[in-house]
Amino acid sequence: MAQLVPSVKEYRGTTVQVCGLWPFSSGASSPMIGVPLGRHEETQATVCCDPISWFQRARLISNPSAFILGKPGLGKSTLVRRMFLGLAAQGVNPLVLGDLKGEHVKAVEALGGQVIKLGRGVGYLNILDPGQAVEVAQLLEEHGHHEAATRVRADAHGRRLNMVVSLITISRNNPPTDQEQTILDRALRVLDDRFDGIPVLKDLLEVIVSAPDELRQVALDRGDMNVYLRETRALEATLLGLTGGGKLGEIFSQQTTNPMKRDRAVVFDVSSIDETETDLQAAVLLACWSYGFGTVNVANTLADAGLEPRRNYFVVLDELWRALRSGKGMVDRVDALTRLNRSVGVGQIMISHTMSDLLALPAEEDRMKARGFVERSGMVICGGLPASEMPLLTSAIPLSRQEQQKLISWQDPPAWDSRGLDIEPPGRGKFLIKVGGRPGIPVQIGLTSIEKNDGLNDTDTRWHAPAKTLMDQAAPSLPTEGGTL
């Protein structure tokens, strides 16, 4: 008999190693397939997780996608970086389509990837540039893949039309009319037939102004030029603002400065755009997403035809709420861009702060579609969230009362400390992985020495070396011996 039962040491090993310890062995409480993230918060077991591995190898989710929710400063970007670094080691190319803070640039550079800078006077992205679609379509036709070439051209046309409509929607805060969209569709086709080279928005505007017969037919002017001018006046004004430096600047009006490559990690660095230019940020994000998904489609088509090796991509869509709030109908545009499913070999992860950000849309149908982004995801990863979020979150994914309390406790600030020590919030680096109605897996992200020391996860670099304040500069120096102040 013992009054105090001693705690037994726990050891971890594979099934082959511990099979002789029966019945003193038990299975792990978390999956061991995927990128190692950290330790289970309760059992300290290793937690491995990423959307592609859980779909392709573990068969735990039905589609390779994830949605991350959490308050700022709790480590969402660190979690995403850990996932795409681990996937890059497995041969998956990470694509960060729009980095608003420049926090993924160092990691992509460390992988030997491509950094594409966009911003006012920094870099340009031509939304009418079909990318490699034209060359790839010709290559496919030369090898007898005529149907695949037709699909590549149709996809490139649809994405360019979608982007032009999206920019007009952001510029007006309302989508263009059905007739204006029909005119734009026909104008793009006329531009492809008559223009030699890669057109820009100014060329599209000139086609509409020149009033060719094809456009007059869809404008239903009945032979009256005044009717055509009246129907296209608002469209011309909006396009003129997009090419002449309106609130969206001239980022989309010139040729692409740095074309995207298909065989490596890529990040679109848009950190030079100011936080106050919300419309421009939303427009650039949509343009990056459209360009990136178009490139993925081209790579998959070439692989299907046996002309290139098969490549898998892990697409990161950060700050989703910025694009959704930029105008009515933007949810449909984002949905059309991001509907890549399991059949095309692409995993994607969407990042936002709270469910309120997704549901703070004026139209009820847009709010329902935005909630569908979370519901359709293969897994939902939650960081610290306020209590007010729980009714909205539980309407999309089931959460027990204990899981809700855990998420609420993770969003608390650190303890008060008058000594100015660097004390982390209690929820930093802690996430709850939810898949369907299964119990969530609470994990504490563990950083390696390289991640800690090389600054890959430091998003507060501008606070490390503050400049001298005016008080410091005005402070008098101490007098020397015999001197006076």
UniProtKB/TrEMBL annotation:
Coiled coil: none annotated. It comes from the Bacteria. Keywords: Plasmid. Residues 68-286 form the Helicase HerA central domain. Signal peptide: none annotated. The keyword Cell cycle does not apply. Pfam families: DUF87 (PF01935). The keyword Hydrolase does not apply. This is Helicase HerA central domain-containing protein. It comes from Pseudarthrobacter chlorophenolicus (strain ATCC 700700 / DSM 12829 / CIP 107037 / JCM 12360 / KCTC 9906 / NCIMB 13794 / A6).
